[in-house]
Amino acid sequence: MTTPSTSPGALAGIKVLDLSRVLAGPWCTQILADLGADVVKVERPGVGDDTRQWGPPFLKDADGNDTNQASYYTACNRNKRSVTIDMASPEGQALIKQMALEADIVVENFKVGGLKQYGLDHESLRALNPRLIYCSVTGFGQDGPYAERAGYDLMVQAMTGLMSITGQADNQPGGGPMRVGVAVIDLFTGLYASNAILAALHVRDNAANGTGQGQHIDMALLDVGMAVLANQASGFLATGKAPGRMGNSHPSLAPYQDFPTQDGNMLLAIGNDGQFQRFCAAAEQPQWASDPRFATNTLRVQNRAALIPAMEAVTRTRTTADWITLLEDKAVPCGPINTIAQAFDDAQVQARGLAVTLPRWKDGEAATDKVQQITGVASPLRLSATPPVLRNAPPALGQHTDEVLREMGLDAARIAALRASGVV
Q1: pLDDT at 62 over 90
Q2: pLDDT at 209
Q3: Phi and psi (nearest 5°) for 154?
Q4: Of 72, 137, 227, 318, which is most buried with the most CB atoms under 10 A?
Q5: Is 327 in contact with 275 (CB distance < 8 Å)?
Q6: 138 CB-near residues (< 8 Å, 6+ apart)
Q7: What count of Cα atoms within 13 Å lies in the side-chain half-sphere of residue 195?
Q8: Does 54 score more than 80 pLDDT?
Q9: Is there a catalytic annotation at residue 258?
Q10: Delimiting residues of CATH 3.30.1540.10 domain(s) in the chain
């Protein structure tokens, strides 16, 4: 089990009020939490974030049995404190406004205008705290004809054309549009949002020319979905020709795809002519390197219909492990196509400590759902002086409500009254 960290982290002293649910917003705030910010997540009493019920799979209790807590929630809520507050009630709204007075950052992913009825929208909270950085995550942004629509990762993958370039071509077995295997638009939106928030913090607090003022950040899944089309979008904008699905092949590189082996498949990612020449020598096929059809990457892309079948006939003659052994010291990018189980069993993944297990609650606290520890994926951010912190596992629903309310100055009688009335 990983020992919880006591180091402060790069964002120590920064307070985040997390009003977001599901994935994009929570992914953003988990990044901030990993970097040391104090993230307080506000959840609905008795229900919590939607993803607490998005199972199977579910967390296991100490006896190995399923609980009613889905593992989905644990992917993006590490290092946070959970409080339950009914924001539909005036008293709940007052509590959240009090929290916003002390916060540096608010992150929310309600529909456009959805928090205005509670007085928790950007304008209302900035009037109380002009230093507040308020990040709104929506499907389509704060303006435009789709602004009031709900947006979801899968919908945006379809709308932006990402699904049109993912999957096998129509003339291949299993051809047709395909979503990416994780909610990649949500995840990228969380990453972009955290970058924007850090930029806004710098603008506010920079000693040389900081404004001292917060600002509103408008993050849209649609905008991010278009942005991460990257080279595929730039190719279309340069030529006017929309790219299509190519399976695991690359539109601009060859050979850069999966290949069959004697016992399965491997991945070759040859990105330049030198790598191709070294592959040909190792594979005992020097004629490919001297063939004028394959002399450059552009020519290999143009003549991939001749090259790839010839290569597949050769790659089938060795096992995946044999190919990796043969090529890894030749500076030819090559690797296995792992399952997730195999990936976590990989020596490099283990050496980097990419699976971390944290205790669920402090000693002496009630085990509300019998889950005593949770394993997740470590932060990939590796800062030499202020590395990410691992303070606590994703919290049980409302685990820190009393703790946070006491920090706000509420006494035990007041907290008990709020709980009795269903406000918390």
Answers
A1: no
A2: 84
A3: -60, -40
A4: 137
A5: no
A6: 109, 110, 111, 112, 147, 151, 218, 219, 220, 221
A7: 9
A8: yes
A9: no
A10: 256-344
Do residues 391 and 5 touch, judged by C-beta distance below 8 A? yes
Asked if residue 90 has pLDDT above 60, the reply is: yes
Q: Is 132 helix (H, G, I), strand (E, B) or coil?
A: coil
According to DSSP H, which parts of 316-370 are helical? 320-327, 340-345, 347-351
What global pTM score does this model have?
A: 0.93
Confidence check: pLDDT of 70 > 70: yes
> What is the reported pLDDT for 367?
45
CATH topology of domain 15-228+353-420: Rossmann fold (3.40.50)
Q: What is the average pLDDT across 101-117?
A: 97
- Nearest-Å Rg of the Cα atoms of the chain is 25
Q: Buried b / exposed e across 253-272, counting CB within 10 Å, b at 16+?
A: bbbbbbbebeeeebbbebee
Token pair of 26, please? 């929570």
Q: Which amino acid is at 258?
A: D
The token pair that represents 387 in the structure block: 């590395």
Which residue, 44, 46, 45, 73, is CA-closest to 57?
A: 73
Distance CA 34, CA 356 (A): 13
Nearest partner of 46 among 370, 396, 410, judged by Cα:
396
What is the pLDDT, as a whole number, of residue 366? 41
Domain 256-344 listed as CATH 3.30.470.30: no
The answer to whether the beta carbons of residues 36 and 28 sit under 8 Å apart is no
Q: Is the pLDDT of residue 61 over 90?
A: no
- Give the tokens for residue 69: 């807590």
Question: How far is C-alpha 307 from the geometric centre of its chain's CA atoms?
Answer: 37
- Give, in order, the Cα–Cα distances in Å from 404 to each of 60, 165, 302, 367, 410: 28, 47, 62, 19, 9
Among 121, 186, 322, 346, which one carries the catalytic annotation? 186
CATH 3.40.50.10540: which residues of the chain?
15-228+353-420
- Cα 49 to its chain centre, rounded Å, is 17
> Considering Cα of 343, then 346, then 352, then 357, what sign does the dihedral take?
positive
Q: Which of 110 and 207 is assigned the larger pLDDT?
A: 110
pLDDT band at 361 (very low <50, low <70, confident <90, very high): low
β 38-43/80-84 pair status: parallel
Q: Over the stretch 362-411, which tens digit does the pLDDT of each residue have?
A: 533 444 556 678 999 999 999 999 999 999 999 999 999 999 999 999 99
